[in-house]
Write a structure and sequence with these properties.
With 954 residues, the protein is α+β, with helices and mostly antiparallel strands. The protein has 15 helices and 54 strands. A five-stranded antiparallel beta sheet has the order 36-37-38-39-40. It has a four-stranded antiparallel beta sheet with strand order 1-30-29-28, with no helix packed on it. The chain has a four-stranded antiparallel beta sheet with strand order 2-3-4-5. A hairpin with a 5-residue loop joins strand 14 and strand 15. The two termini are 34 Å apart. About 23% of the residues have low confidence.
């Protein structure tokens, strides 16, 4: 054993109250008093462990310093995954820190730190306010599901670590200051110790007080600043801090079996302040018998400035170190490898103890640890908080021990956005809620929260009378109105990122001026109802209320293509952002009118733009002896908003619709003709084409390589412009049945998506030579999509084409008199699974990998809640695919399709892991989970560890 005291680890000679080693072992954090505030410092571990690194000036010692706490920091604790650091202090706050990219805030310099430059940058992502007094101790639960904090306000608050700053429960029952808190490693209990001379054990199932232990503490006085108790990694022993036995201070051992208190650690001359178990269960051969021993290791610190190390396999301490500091030992922390112990003291110094494997033993492997858990907690480790029937089920797989099943969260389609101070930075891109729920749809964790009032600023005064104002994050108001506000409106909703990035104007001639500034015009739905669809912060109202520029008198169009264009332009004004290639918005807006499905001549002047180039249409403007001509003009708009003509051509028939891409423009006329021109030169790309009826819709793909049109009679054509070849030629007539096409989109791979006036939507599959149903009034589809109605539907046609098209249906929810059907499990489960499986097949056909992964995850979520064993096995066998067949010695992979191992480039093993992760939330599926997990592990080992780079099934 080696002892080292790095004198360069200090808080400017102020007390250090807490210390904790990062799970990676590369850094450690200290918390305590700063110059005029609380201080958290993150240090490099290398100079502590290596003398060579300590002498190397290029190796940094301080990684980051945060002086954001207004008063002394009493505790710092890393989360189990190492991604977050929690700190609690005398300012009644708990701060959650997360590492960010350089220069993105936090650390030295961000709020007047230590004056140096941070090697790492850590930002406070959430401030937890709830305690009425000093926060003295913190503890993360297994799997980082919750974090518990205790305070001098006599309470323990359990916070939801997945939805900061949500409070799960406030544990009340102590009558004195609560000075320590710790979690049962199995996840069934949380324990707290208080100055009221008691230790309480709380159940995590209902947060009730399960056991109160007072006998060992009856002689104790409130003589310690903290009481850091600890639970052994095997869950068998809970060791308290300050206890008394025969008038002498001890660390009381409380056995889980019957909560007996007949053993304790003795020898310290003053009160025990902190105990900390080694993170792992250890093993070694017994000195005399050579039998394998399994035991736990514990460090004990006390006010007598001494430190003792104990092994549960020995009757006496392994080592005792006296007078290690000049003041009380206040905290302890073991490294992840188990051979380094850091301790800190009120005198402002720390000490490092390095052990060897011969002295402590070797940690138990995860497999051996799981076997031990299964043997010890077969009937007790289940932490299902809802299903009473499963509470007595024997847990046969340790993966089910630490999984909280109180509220299984469904998968989300759109990745979560980072948060600041508990407020979401971008509420506009909400994740899709679960498609089908067993009764009433479960709310996704990403759903919109009710708007909360902005809190008043917090003002405190220091000892010298100076005022301190706590900086607060004040978000923009981004309310999007009531959910599903567009669902009952038969007019197509606003703004969709379809096809090319072109912008378009209404049929109003605009006199452009170089000095004019763009104004934000509210969409038609806002003026019609009097209720804005997007609220603006007061800081933006000046721009939003600027008077509109003058324009020519407005005419009402009847062309459905123009009406669709206007609806697409009716995006919430808060989404408009200045940029070099910003869309050119029209200055006046017409009321929305119903499309007719007929080709109608564009009235007045109209233009569409892509980047700085725009194409203008002027119908019936040139009179000749042969007839009236229409002008098509290409112009470029400079940064100063000055127009410069690029080219001009004429068309002998009035234009009914047109579209603009990055390189080309397609112009469709009343005489059934179609022209494709280069937007830079105006030269034709194709010869003039003619169809059986005039086009009513035209569109480019997002990469502008493909162009498509739909005619009055329902003919659909898609061309590859660079190749000058037709890609698809079919008819929509077989699906229109009295309706007409209102929206057309062409994907980059030539897949057409259409939305009809009756709300139904389709996509055409060339392989099947048929239309695929995307959305309709079908009860299964309505039931499947009802959970996806959010305040901000998905509007990303490139990444999420299926969800985007399905969000444009105009079908209402269940009838009032059939609401009880929502609770009918006899039909709902089968309908939900049928819908999800169809979604998966559509995603395969339209080549949407992001949505495919989401719907497989949703399938796992539904199967875990309501599926049958037969269906689960069917899905898992399908995902094992050809690789699974190779397990049969009578078969080989020679005749198997190599592509059977992946779908759309996503490994089937990865999809299978997602399904298994959902099954892990329900104990009743543990045998299926174990069976298929073993097969998956075998395949990964055989294939050389393919799939994820991280360990299987974290």
């Amino acid at each position: 054993m080696k002892i080292f005291q790095p004198n360069w680890v200090h808080h400017d000679e102020k007390s250090i109250f807490s210390i904790d080693i990062h799970p990676s072992g590369e850094r450690f954090a200290t918390g305590g008093q700063g110059c005029d505030s609380g201080r958290v410092v993150i240090w490099n571990m290398a100079p502590v462990l290596s003398e060579q690194a300590e002498e190397n000036k290029s190796v940094p010692r301080v990684l980051c310093q945060m002086d954001n706490h207004l008063a002394c920091v009493n505790c710092v604790r890393w989360s189990g995954n190492g991604l977050m650091l929690a700190s609690g202090g005398d300012d009644k706050l708990v701060m959650i820190w997360k590492k960010t990219l350089s220069g993105s805030g936090g650390g030295i310099g961000a709020f007047g730190g230590g004056g140096g430059k941070s090697v790492e940058h850590w930002r406070c992502i959430s401030t937890l306010r709830g305690h009425a007094g000093d926060v003295l101790d913190l503890a993360w639960s297994p799997q980082d599901r919750w974090i518990a904090s205790c305070s001098v306000d006599n309470t323990i608050i359990v916070w939801d670590a997945q939805q900061f700053p949500k409070i799960v429960h406030v544990l009340k029952g102590h009558t004195g200051l609560v000075k320590g808190v710790t979690w049962d490693p199995v996840g069934k209990f949380v324990a707290s110790q208080s100055d009221d001379r008691s230790l309480k054990v709380w159940k995590t199932t209902d947060w009730s007080c399960f056991k109160t232990i007072t006998e060992p503490f009856e002689e104790c006085g409130g003589t310690t600043h903290i009481l850091r108790l600890s639970w052994s990694p095997d869950g068998q022993y809970l060791v308290s801090a300050h206890a008394m036995n025969g008038g002498g201070p001890t660390a009381q051992i409380i056995e889980r079996d019957g909560w007996k208190c007949d053993k304790d650690f003795v020898g310290h001359r003053k009160a025990v302040t902190c105990v900390r178990f080694h993170n792992s269960i250890l093993k070694r051969s017994a000195p005399k018998t050579n039998k394998l021993q399994q035991y736990c290791c514990l460090a004990v610190g006390a006010r007598d400035r001494s430190l003792s190390i104990w092994l549960t396999a020995l009757q006496r301490p392994l080592v005792v170190i006296h007078d290690l500091f000049q003041d009380s030992i206040l905290d302890l922390s073991w490294s992840c490898d188990g051979y380094t112990l850091l301790t800190c003291s009120g005198d402002g110094h720390i000490a490092c103890l390095q052990f060897t494997a011969q002295e402590l033993g070797t940690p138990l492997s995860e497999e051996d640890k799981n076997i031990l858990y299964q043997r010890m907690y077969g009937k007790n480790a289940n932490i299902d908080l809802t299903a009473q029937a499963e509470k007595e089920m024997i847990v046969e797989n340790s993966d089910f021990l630490n999984v909280s099943k109180s509220n299984p969260l469904p998968p989300t389609l759109i990745p979560q956005q980072p948060q600041l101070g508990g407020m979401r930075l971008d509420d506009a891109s909400k994740a899709v809620q679960p498609a089908c729920q067993p009764a009433v749809a479960i709310k996704s964790s990403s759903s919109l929260a009710a708007p909360t009032p902005i809190l008043k600023q917090i003002e405190t005064k220091t000892a010298d009378g100076k005022r301190r104002i706590t900086p607060m994050f004040i978000p923009l108001n981004d309310d999007n109105g009531p959910a599903g506000s567009h669902a009952t409106n038969n007019i197509m909703p606003s703004s969709i990122e379809f096809g090319s990035k072109s912008s378009e104007t209404s049929t109003v001639e605009i006199k452009q001026r170089a000095h004019e500034e763009p104004t934000i015009i509210p969409p038609p739905t806002e003026r019609a109802t009097g209720e804005p669809t997007s609220k603006l912060d007061n800081r933006l109202k000046k721009m939003a209320t600027a008077p509109p520029q003058k324009a020519e008198p407005m005419t009402v169009p009847t062309d459905p293509q123009q009406q669709q264009q206007q609806q697409q332009l009716s995006a919430p004004s808060s989404t408009i952002q200045p940029a070099a290639n910003q869309k050119l918005m029209d200055r006046t807006r017409q009321p929305a009118t119903f499309p007719t499905g007929k080709a109608t001549v564009i009235q007045g002047h109209s233009f569409k733009a892509f980047g700085e180039v725009r194409v203008q249409i002027q119908n019936n403007t040139v009179k000749t002896s042969y007839g009236t001509l229409s002008r098509v003009v290409g112009v470029v708009v400079t940064a100063q908003r000055v127009e410069r003509k690029l080219w001009e051509t004429v068309v002998g028939s009035p234009i009914v619709c047109f579209a603009v891409g990055a390189k080309y423009a397609i112009v469709c006329s009343q005489d059934h003709t179609i022209r494709m021109v280069d937007i830079k030169t105006g030269t034709p790309v194709f010869p003039v084409l003619s169809l059986t009826s005039p086009a009513v819709l035209s569109a480019f793909s997002s990469n502008s390589q493909l162009a498509g049109v739909v005619t009055e009679s329902g003919i659909l054509r898609i061309w590859s412009v660079p190749e000058k070849a037709v890609l698809l030629s079919t008819s929509c007539a077989e699906i229109m049945s009295g309706s007409f096409v209102t929206i057309l989109h062409v994907s980059d791979k030539g897949m057409p998506f259409i939305v009809l006036s009756n709300g139904s939507s389709y996509s055409y599959c060339r392989k099947l030579d048929s239309w695929m149903l995307i959305n309709s009034s079908d009860p299964v589809i309505r039931h499947g999509l009802i959970g996806n109605k959010t305040n901000a539907p998905v509007r990303n046609i490139k990444t999420y084409p299926l969800s985007t098209i399905q969000s444009y249906g105009s079908f209402s929810g269940p009838k009032t008199n059939s609401f009880a059907e929502l609770h009918s499990a006899s039909w709902q489960t089968s309908a939900a699974i049928a819908f999800i499986e169809n979604q998966i097949k559509i995603c395969e056909m339209i080549a949407s990998p992001a949505e495919l992964k989401y719907w497989y995850s949703m399938l796992g979520f539904q199967l875990a809640l309501n599926g049958s064993e037969e269906k689960i096995r069917q899905v898992l066998d399908d995902l094992l695919g050809a690789s699974h067949n190779s397990l049969d010695p009578c078969r080989t992979l020679a005749g198997d399709d190599a592509d059977d191992r992946s779908v759309l480039g996503i490994s089937k093993q990865l999809l299978m892991e997602d399904v298994l992760n959902h099954l892990k939330t329900q104990t009743k599926w543990q045998r299926i989970y174990t069976e298929y997990l073993d097969q998956l592990k075998f395949l990964k080992e055989r294939d050389g560890g393919g799939g994820r780079d991280k360990p299987l099934m974290e």
